Amino acid sequence: MSLKQETDEAGYTLPLHDVDGFLCHTVISPDIIKGLRQFPFRDDDIMVCSYPKSGCHWTWEIVRMLLEGTTDVVLQEKEDLMMDYQTQEFLDKFPSPRVLNNHVLLRHLNPELFEKKIKIVMAVRNPKDVAVSFYHHHKQFDEYEYKGQFTDYVPMYLDGKVDCGSVFDYTRDWERVIDEHPEHPILLLSYEDMKENLFREVKKIGNFLGKSFEDDFYQKIADKCTFSKMRNRKGAIYKEFKENVFYRKGEVGDWKNWFTVAQSELCDRVCEEKMAGSKIRFRYTLDEK
Ligand code: A3P
After folding, report:
1. pLDDT given for residue 237 in this prediction
2. Tens of pLDDT along 12-55?
3. Which amino acid residue places its CA nearest to atom 15 of ligand 1?
4. What burial class does residue 201 get, using C-beta atoms within 10 Å of its C-beta: 0-12 exposed, 13-18 middle, 19+ buried?
5. Distance of CA 246 to CAs 250, 262, 273, Å?
């Protein structure tokens, strides 16, 4: 492990841990990342996986409600069940079924997850809105001490010199898992589809988890998990931030307020190159299908 100082176009730095080529926030312990290969999964664990800022908190909350069969779930931080943040001993204390979550790659995880058929719910979001969201995240966490401007941040982000590396590499990595393990239960969701019709997506997750609730219950979850409701209910957990980085704006297309035309075109070119052969189509607006 080493401390790496990534640098944006203006020379502002972003300190990260480099764990065998995987970049992560300095609050993340490299030993925890390395220990994940031996992580003892329970048969009924569910894993919510995503690149940062792609809707992990949102998806995690919905999965919890579906598993518990109620919208009155205990107020809890997603980070409590975050495999790449908490120690194994800490995670051991939670009763089954656990809704684990992480931002790591398959190579970090215990391959036993395939034998145990651990259900994986994966959220992806268009890389331009992720860039804006991640920029605010980097500005708000004191540990990053990041002072840069968005315009200088974009190339660093597109180069994957941020936590969890390139959004494109991350997405391709997990898409490969889906392709190479067609029998494994993995549900791919998109942030934009969830924004478009949350009831439909909640029901889809419910079916994936083997639930068969009445539509009323799926609607109840969708109503409880709108952006404003979640921000009101869960936002207070993260009091230390001036701006709530986990419940900031919750929109599709905010990137248009931040990207220049040239930056947007650069992002498109990088996306085309990195995602060559991919079946995943990012939705940059809700008008795109
Ligand atoms: P913005 O910064 O664009 O607002 P993650 O949970 O993976 O860290 O993702 C955080 C992003 O998801 C933030 O995006 C946050 O506002 C958004 N988000 C969280 N809850 C949401 C909800 N219920 N509906 C829509 N977006 C939500």
Report:
1. 66
2. 999 999 999 999 999 999 999 999 999 999 999 999 999 999 99
3. 247
4. buried
5. 9, 28, 30
Using a CB cutoff of 8 Å and minimum separation of 24, what contacts does 267-275 make?
Answer: 267/127, 267/128, 267/131, 267/154, 267/158, 270/158, 270/168, 271/127, 271/168, 274/166, 274/168, 274/169, 274/172, 275/168, 275/171, 275/172
Strand bridging mode 119-124 / 186-190: parallel
Distances (CA, A) of 234 to 52, 69, 116, 161, 191: 18, 19, 32, 30, 19
What is the reported pLDDT for 239? 65
177-231 pLDDT, tens per residue? 999 999 999 999 999 999 999 999 999 999 999 999 999 999 999 999 999 999 9
| 77 alpha carbon – ligand 1 mean position (Å) | 14
Q: How far apart, in whole angstroms, are the C-alpha atoms of residue 194 and residue 201? A: 6
Beta bridge partners of 188: 122
Locus of tokens 């008008």: 287
Domain segments of the chain as ranges: 2-274
What CATH class does 2-274 carry?
alpha beta
Instruction: Tell how far the Cα of 183 is from the centroid of ligand 1, in angstroms.
Output: 30
Q: For every residue of 12-68, which 3-state class applies, written as one string?
A: CEEEEEEECCEEECCCCCHHHHHHHHHCCCCCCCEEEEECCCCCHHHHHHHHHHHHH
Whether 50 is in the pocket of ligand 1, judged by its Cβ within 6 Å, is yes
> Reduced to 3 states, what is the DSSP secondary structure of residue 186?
strand
